[in-house]
Design brief:
Elements: E1 4-8, H1 13-24, E2 28-32, E3 48-50
Length: about 60
């Protein structure tokens, strides 16, 4: 089983290069992007897209 990684801001310049490095290191990539983000440059990559992240802060 591959290790998994979630990359936020995946549609941006840094995010794209983080995805490339994660794939190079044989990680399963989940890319967090906004609904209106341009992701054409990511479409050929073997990644999963996450459009909404819900987090709960417990104090």
């Amino acid at each position: 089983m591959k290790e998994k990684v979630l990359i936020t801001g995946a549609s941006g310049f840094v995010g794209y290069h983080l995805i490339a490095e994660a794939l190079h290191n044989n990680l399963e990539v989940y890319a967090a992007v906004r609904q209106n983000s341009r992701i054409e440059h990511l479409k050929e990559l073997p990644i999963q897209y996450v459009y909404r992240i819900t987090a709960t802060l417990i104090l």
